[in-house]
Amino acid sequence: MADIKKFRGALLGGACGDALGYPLQNFSVARIQHRFGPFGLRTLVRDVKNGRKAPVTDNTQMVLAAIDGILWADAKKLDVLDGIYRGFMRWYYSQTGEEPKRGQRTWMRRQPHEREFCLLREKFMHARRNPEDGVLSAFSKDFRGSVRVKINDSKGAASLSRAVPVGLLYTGDSKTAFDQAVKAAALSHSNPLSYYSAGALAVIISCISDGWTLPKALQRAEELLGKLHKTDPIISLLSAAEAQANNRPAGKSGTWDHIDSISSLGSGREANEALAIAVYACLALDDPTDALIISANHGGRSNTTAFVTGAIEGARFGEAFMPRYWADILEGAEPIGFMADRLFYVYGKYHK
């Protein structure tokens, strides 16, 4: 059985990484140093306009929307993917303020699984925080995206965050975690690079929350990817991340000592790049908090790379790895913790 601390760690760790990377998103290294000092940004930044909380982005919103859907599916005996789609559409309507489509109007009402807590009523779920281009457009369509039904050609890294709760739900069942995460990603990302990267992350989360080491979890992810077409760019970047981490000079742990390695793996805007950067940070740094900081301080999509790093490290070490005050200033910390506990409850029902 998995440990509830790993569920909470993965979700809170991902959210803290998201919040850490948000102020750095698309900043150059020079601009990061100018704004936050020579060592980069090393802690969460409060926003006075946001109730002095460190804001999260669509990465965390989509994780919670996915869990909302999983809980919904459990309560109404729906297919898990159908529940996740409902959760995503609620997020879409919250972001856009659009009138729900025919047949979906009741989805915006309080549901049976929300007697204790209603995610839809959380203000931060309605805040638009630079969601990835194309995600909102994908959910605006009159049909659902899938591996067979293309909705766009997006390779974007926003597909990764939803893989985390899927990986947790299927802790110990990496093949199902992979398959379900691929389907969940394909709802809005139709390029195999994106949805198979999400599948790989779900495998990593599924395995490490079951007690596997990260290298063994990566081996399992690469094994599943190797059986499919169009996954070579994902496997090659994961292998490069492992090689870079293994070959790093001993004792190098300063913020910028890893920037060349991270840059060689990409910007993190594409899903395989963000996954590889996170894997590198987790393997290269012994301290998980340092890994989170390193994965945020670069010139790419910092919130996503740090989100993935935080989720992996949280699943490995539990929520205790983060500075305690981070959770105190993190936007949505209480709802995230509650949703983690509810996800663990559903996991427990699946594994009786």
Topology:
Elements: H1 4-21, H2 29-36, H3 58-76, H4 80-96, H5 135-140, H6 163-169, H7 174-186, H8 192-208, H9 214-225, H10 232-246, H11 259-264, H12 271-284, H13 288-296, H14 302-317, H15 324-329, H16 333-350
How many H/I helical runs? 16
Tell me the strand percentage band. Answer: under 5%
Q: What's the total number of strands?
A: 0
Main sheet overview: none
Please, what is the CATH homologous superfamily?
ADP-ribosylation/Crystallin J1
Shape: globular
Backbone CA Rg: 18 Å
CATH architecture: Orthogonal Bundle
Assembly state (oligomeric): single chain
Q: What's the structural domain tally?
A: 1
Order of helices and strands: HHHHHHHHHHHHHHHH
Backbone structural class:
mainly alpha
Low-confidence runs of at least 5 consecutive residues? none
CATH class: Mainly Alpha
Structural features:
352 residues, mainly alpha, 57% helix, 16 helices, ADP-ribosylglycohydrolase fold
Describe this entry's structure for a reader.
Helices cover 57% and strands 0% of the residues. The chain has 352 residues and is an all-alpha fold.
Please provide a brief summary of the model.
The chain has 16 helices and no strands. The protein has 352 residues and is mostly helical. The chain has a single domain, classed as ADP-ribosylation/Crystallin J1 (ADP-ribosylglycohydrolase fold), CATH 1.10.4080.10.
